[in-house]
Amino acid sequence: MPERDLSTFGLVGLGVMGRNFILNVADKGFTALGYDLDPEKAAALEKEGAASGRVRATDNLEAFVGGLERPRRIMLLVPAGKPVDAVIDALLPHLEAGDIIVDGGNSFYKDTDRREAFLKEKGIHFFGAGVSGGAEGARRGPSIMPGGSREAYAHLKPIFEAVAARYQNEPCVAYLGPKSAGNYVKMVHNGIEYALMQAIAETYDLLKHLGGLDNAQLAATFSRWNEGRLQSFLVEITSHIFRQPDPLGSGALVDRILDKAKQKGTGKWTSQNAMDLGIPVPSLDISVSMRQISALKPIREKAEGMYPKPALPAADLQWVEAAEATLYFTFITAYAQGMHLLSEASKAYGYELELGEIAKIWRAGCIIRAALLADITGAYQARPELDNLLLDPGFAEKVRPALEPTRRLVSAGIQHGIAIPTLAGSLSYFDAMSSGRLPLNLVQAQRDYFGAHTYERTDREGTFHTEW
Questions:
Q1: 227, pLDDT greater than 50
Q2: Domains in the chain, ordered, with CATH?
Q3: Which of 41, 179, 186, 360 is catalytic?
Q4: pTM for the predicted model, two decimal places
Q5: 227 tagged catalytic
Q6: Prior bond to 310 cis, omega within 30?
Q7: Which of 41, 116, 179, 193 is catalytic?
Q8: Which H, E and C letters describe 359-380, residue by residue?
């Protein structure tokens, strides 16, 4: 094929995400070639991209690889797991040293490390690049989190910076670090996402049962919050959800949706890895557990008949203001936990992450984009060595006024039997992290009593054991 007919960018997987991403690439002036095993998907992309003249598609793998400029830049948007390995195996016989494969899915970071090491031996660069923003973000501008070879990123940078979302004219993409840094950051992004979503759901429950708000009032409340310090994608779409009528019946659609939430694993991976690294992320942990509890609906319904809830008080709109402060506080603690985990993972895995840069590329395009991220960016740019966001003086000024209403609302929710583990757990996390002394001296005494596990003392150095 003549050099002038070769495409700059190749994409494997022409489902909704892949089709939208490649059309975004073409919109930004790059020639792009798509590949899918399904000839109908390839034909559909050809038809949709015909107007620009920059998009082609094929269901022939050899023609796909042969139609790309060298070094070949090939992005995979296929389901995580075995499909990624299958595509890599199929591509390998057609690739050359220096070519680049980018996995844009939610792959487990250890799989990315394995694939990167395997392909490196063959002279091929492998990137794990988290893409956040859903199908609409892929088309209009996502947040992109690439990790891999710094040298090879020079070949991806112009394309990624062109297609990424922009915040104050800055692209929401940056080279994050070697190996699986990009997939790891995307994993933690999703863990934070779980916590924010669960916190919003618990706030909704409190507003319904303590505040007495109906769907119209809930929509107005979340819409108003989205104009203030809680401005965020998730708060914005929540306000829209309460306004959506049921297309199959009467009333609001949200009231007809079954209370069983599903998950794809990234939240669980975040929680498990935080345990491995010894970093507390209770707001993220319990949000995963709540999805698991939600799936146990038959058990929940049986238990509800056995354990009556306390009577609810008369509805009181005073709780709306307290709920705003509580949600704001919980957002801060969720981001603080996620950033703390990223900091420790960077040291453990040699990622060389810059937390200010990560917060910066989350400010637009991604699911957890929020006004708070501008402040988080500033905090870590000013203090790159910050151990925890809660230690930043600027964030201390934000947290202190929110504590009293948070304690009041959490207490009321618990008193009246409303399940709010993310809100309550975030407050307990804060109280523990801001306590110079915890009752874990007793735990150490117990461990030494039954297992001779030893303990340390407050008044002298060394390790001690007592015959209790």
A1: yes
A2: 3-179 (3.40.50.720), 186-433 (1.10.1040.10), 438-468 (1.20.5.320)
A3: 186
A4: 0.95
A5: no
A6: no
A7: 193
A8: HHHCCCCCCCCECHHHHHHHHH
